[in-house]
Amino acid sequence: MDTTHLHENPLLEISNLSIAFGAHPAVQDISLRIAPGETLGLVGESGSGKSATSLALLRLLPPTAHVTGSIRFAGEDLLALPEAQMRRHRGRSIAMIFQEPMTALNPVMRIGNQIAEALQVHHPELSRKTIRTRVLDSLHEVALPNPEQRLNDYPHQFSGGQRQRLLIAMALIHRPRLLIADEPTTALDVTVQAQILKLLKDLRNTHNLAMLFISHDLAVVFQACDQPADHVAVMQHGRLVEHAPARDLFLHPQHPYTRKLLASVPTMQTNRDQPLAVLS
């Protein structure tokens, strides 16, 4: 496994992170770094420890979780911060978007009010006019059609792709330095998936946004991690089994599990008479 991925000044540095729920280890001694403007793809099957890692970054694991190691963000150890200071990071300097927008959006609250509320939590001093302007700016930035006419609509009145754009607008309205994207395209069809991935890449380039992109799908990660500095880390059963520059990992996978993941992705050249590789 490549452990030479080092930055002089990483924005996020995870060192020897382990997470256990009772006697059951979920994550075992992983170390990762992300620089400003870089995307790190974190790949693995369901239950491999990806989402537990992302929730540990925001200190959103249940009290029963036992967490050791350190998570340093811009030099601060997040695991050692008082809860009040941690709350200031959540949503402001570190934002997160989820797999299923309908579970993250309030179904009985107008979307303009939801995004405004996300802004007011961290900026109570802003006037209503300024908040409205910022909300509209964020909706324009994620290319939501006709946002001025849609501020009073409810989540169910939007398509799946539009709801994901709403979540991205809500996440980025504070100009966070790190975006955690946990399976952000899994619930979308392939065409909309490509649109959301392009949007995330455009926003990343515009704002020098660092991103932790979590997925079970290596093909999607390959699209998200398309810059020379981007890396991919592969998790299996709570452990990191491979960690390398994205291009190297896709062209020359070293670990048998990574090879199986790649072999299980259908391509235009795949022989349809042959079964895809099965993960075990």
From TrEMBL:
Query: Which example biological process does GO assign this protein?
Result: peptide transport
Q: Which SUPFAM superfamilies match?
A: P-loop containing nucleoside triphosphate hydrolases
Record keyword Disulfide bond present: no
Q: Output the Gene Ontology cellular-component terms.
A: plasma membrane
Ranges for domain ABC transporter come to 12-262
- Single GO MF descriptor: ATP hydrolysis activity
Which keywords does the record carry? Answer: ATP-binding, Cell membrane, Membrane, Nucleotide-binding, Transport
Q: Which domain of life is it from?
A: Bacteria
Report the locations given in the UniProt record: Cell inner membrane
Keyword ATP-binding set for record: yes
The UniProt entry lists membrane topology as: Peripheral membrane protein
Family indicated by similarity: Belongs to the ABC transporter superfamily.
Protein name per UniProt: Peptide/nickel transport system ATP-binding protein
Where does this protein come from, organism-wise?
A: Granulicella arctica
